[in-house]
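User: structure tokens for this one?
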Amino acid sequence: MMGNRLLIVLLSFVSFAQNDPSIAGFSADAARRQKELESRFDSHINRANLQQWLKQFSAKPHHLGSPGSKEVAEAAAGLFRSWGFETEIETLYPLFPTPKTRLLEMTAPARFTAKLTEPAVDGDATSAQTPGVLPPYHAYSIDGDVTGALVYVNYGLPADYEKLAEMGIDVKGKIVIARYGASWRGIKPKVAAEHGATACIIYSDPRDDGYFQGDPYPAGGWRNRDSAQRGSVMDMPTYPGDPLTPGVGATKDARRPPYRQGATLTKIPVLPISWGDAEPLLRALTGPVAPPEWRGGLPFTYHVGPGPASVHLNLEFNWDLAPLYNVVARLKGSDLADQWIIRGNHHDGWVFGASDPLSGAVALLEEARAVSVLAKSGWRPRRTMIYCLWDGEEPALLGSTEWAEFHAAGLQKHAAVYINSDSTGRGFFFAGASHTLETFINQVSRDVTDPQTKVSVQERLRAVRTLRGDKDPAEIPVGALGSGSDYTPFIQHLGIASINFGFGGETASAGVYHSKYDSYDHFVKFEDPDFQYVFATVQAGGRMMLRMANADYLPFRFDSFSRTVSAYAMEVQKLADDLRMRTATHNERVRSRAYELAADPRRTYVAPKAQDPVPHLNFAPLLNAAGRLKESSGAFSKLSLANLTPAAARELDEIMIQSERKLLTDAGLPRRPWYRHQIYAPGYYTGYGVKTLPGVREAIEERNWTEAEQQMKILAGVLDAFASQVDKAAAVVKGGAR
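Assistant:
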């Protein structure tokens, strides 16, 4: 736990500007009134509601398409209606496969059949339930009946296959077993298929989230011998949402091709297993000893194979459309009702889902209830507040993506900001966002008190960053958004400025992630026993929504965005320079290795191939555009927005809202046009992990030099358009003062 004596001592000696009363988007008087409103909001938060709803909603399985999911949606909708929100449940129908046949057995050198089940554990009231529980499986794996020699591929990333090639090991025609971690699970079968593997098994190694980290559940919070991580393996870096209706809402009557034509289904069958089921398979492998960094926490020497372990995998699925239930609740604004501030969290879980997602969902509900108390006292937001509880996030961001695609025209016209949360728990405040909102997020974190240390959550975060050696500027940088939660369709497809936030870092939630043991009992023992940080999530989310809804003008800032983009531009230039040096070193190594192999033909390692040298790339268009953006943003930051007329503030709002849209292109990214944002995207081979300036960065990483220069020109045009939008905003401010 980071809330230790060293941290407390550091906090006591470091002084920060906590007395700053300003709030971006507000005049001094309006900021004072806003903080009074937020104090009233805090007084209405009831921790007992959080505990009650978490226990209620996690009592049954509530995955997409289940009776439990419908019950949760209807209960939440009833709450919103009782609080005075205009509420509806919008139903859509995406493809959602569920398991019909799951068989994994070792056929040589000994017989072994995997259990593929999660038994009940002492002290966990819901773990004994079996009706309605989805067993461990991977959604959007194809059907398959495969037998073959087994090869251990570490985390199953491209670099791991390069290492295997150097060891003379080819996985073509074989079944690979990879451990969870280091990347999103869907990347593992994708890369395995590219290398010719016929199937992929993914297991949870105890080194990563089991007994190597701490006591397994139920003695501690970490993954036990029989726990397996469910999840989607859809190729979401191509596009999220329904595989059969990309770019179009999955309504009941939407046109769909046969399910086998879904472009984001895996190319090979995939299955998750526990380390208990993986142990006999891995123990039976011989061949080269795995490199040190490949070795997990099981009590034997890790070998790579292939064989003599041979396994048989048989998977069949029910390929059905499933109803998903999105709960959408509106509190109409007063004078700026046509500007929408949207708040979201999903409600579906793989099984009971107490941490993921209900810890965040109940925080959203209590936030909305406290807002409703303010509304009943006579207060009204200026902008319309929309609270959403999404269904189907776990399989593929289905609820949010299909809703955003179906309502795309209205959202691009009216949506100002999307604010997302997901799981939350004890620990440190975190946020990823559009960098135009960096100042806004810093001011929110400045004004929320950390329950453990009693300083602001910003101050606590700054202290631990200092302990790590980070040197922060005046504002703590926010992270860029990749994927993995429901902000993806809003920012990366529709260009709506977005935030994803929560608390974490001091829980053992990773130890039960996507398992049957993500339960109420686990949450209250090992994640946030007294709901202090769920309470803080309510406070942070409430401030974000209330400030966005009430602001005199939308609190976007362009200077943080400009600095960040300039840093990204320097990064991709350095990436090319580093790649040039690595290529030269690699080719020298190739020549040296070839000499070694010629001198000793008994060597089993295979000489790597030489690489083409990295040519000169013309970064001038990108750097010039970043420079122009810096000038425009710098000029805007010097203007005073304090005395704008209402008409000018409204006009400025519209420019702010459309600014993020300027970062889109109609063509989208190469080979994945659904992702239209040119600054942030999930990586093609990282999944959840973000790639900034993705068109340029990934072209360089893939050594596609022609595409790199093409993408640089496209990106330069996007940044020029954004700079023009900043200039337009400046002109409104200059002409709109009272």
